[in-house]
Amino acid sequence: MTSRRYRSHVEEIDRRIVALLAQDGRMSFTDLAKETGLSVSAVHQRVRRLEKRGVIRGFTALVDYDQIGQSLTAFVSIKPIDPAAPDDAPVRLAHLKAIEACHSVAGEESYILKVRVESPLALEELLQQIRSSAGVSTRTTVVLSTPYEHRSPDLSEE
Amino acid sequence: MTSRRYRSHVEEIDRRIVALLAQDGRMSFTDLAKETGLSVSAVHQRVRRLEKRGVIRGFTALVDYDQIGQSLTAFVSIKPIDPAAPDDAPVRLAHLKAIEACHSVAGEESYILKVRVESPLALEELLQQIRSSAGVSTRTTVVLSTPYEHRSPDLSEE
DNA sequence: CGTGAAACCGGTTCAAA
DNA sequence: TTTGAACCGGTTTCACG
């Protein structure tokens, strides 16, 4: 153990497992066992525990949405029109399937939404739905291209 | 087939497969076969083809970074200090592991970065590295909480 | 929390249509 | 492109340390 800060051995292995599964979500328990030096069933147990604790929230396929018709991505920042009204935008917007993510943020606006739609027309319609559903004004930044996305942070040192 | 626009049967099945794997990246081929009405090996072939075509770019575990020490998320918008200089920010920034995504965008700024770090101090250091590596000014929006993320768009109608 | 063995189930390949 | 069969390898559970 030569790291500057203390970290228990089990945490170290769990981080390793998480990093490996972030890199390849379908890696087999057999391969995880080889990489971590544990037995297959020990790794199996740890992954189950990580899922139950919510450290691993699930597994997903990374999809190239350009190739399946959802080729317009945008960030939509929203701001309540009535600052006194209850701030329940996330719930009010949850039914809109085009919204991939919703982040509450510090700063001028209150939330940043990441949205994916088929076309500029679909974006226009979506923005109207967002404004009327949540009682907000919107500021939209259209994505032109994405050099990279979904890179997994380095967990070896924190 | 009662959809308004034409779509071939194979496309329909591929979309179904993609949607299912976006929902559960570890779903077995056996279950995919049941859901799609195909045989196991037919589904197997289709998934392989989707991976080769790049429609499925890979598989990953969805990680709760709060629980593993990367608890500060932020969006960093960047703008070149010299607008005449070559615009190679993505390559110049690629070595910074804390940058999870890089989007080229329309509007006031040229790129939006999504970053994850351990602490405010680490964010400060990262911003300095971004500015010096890419020759840009930065505008940072700190994420306070994330009501939802990684929701898969509805592929049934596009 | 770790292990190895046993039983089971899913992945992968193949020839055939 | 599809299928089913056959084989192989991974998953899962178990009793034990």
Would you kindly provide a written description of the structure presented here, covering whatever features stand out?
The structure is a homodimer of 158-residue chains. With 158 residues, the first copy, chain A, is α+β, with helices and mostly antiparallel strands. Chain A has two domains: 2-53, Arc Repressor Mutant, subunit A; 72-142, 2-Layer Sandwich (Alpha-Beta Plaits). Chain A is built from five helices and five strands; from the N terminus they run H-H-H-E-E-H-E-E-H-E. Chain A has helices at residues 9-23, 29-36, 40-53, 89-93, 120-134; strands spanning 56-63, 72-80, 99-105, 111-117, 136-148. A four-stranded antiparallel β-sheet of chain A has the order 3-4-2-5. Mean pLDDT of chain A is 91; it is low at 1-6. Chains A and B meet through helix 1, strand 1, strand 3 and strand 5 of A and helix 1, strand 1, strand 3 and strand 5 of B.
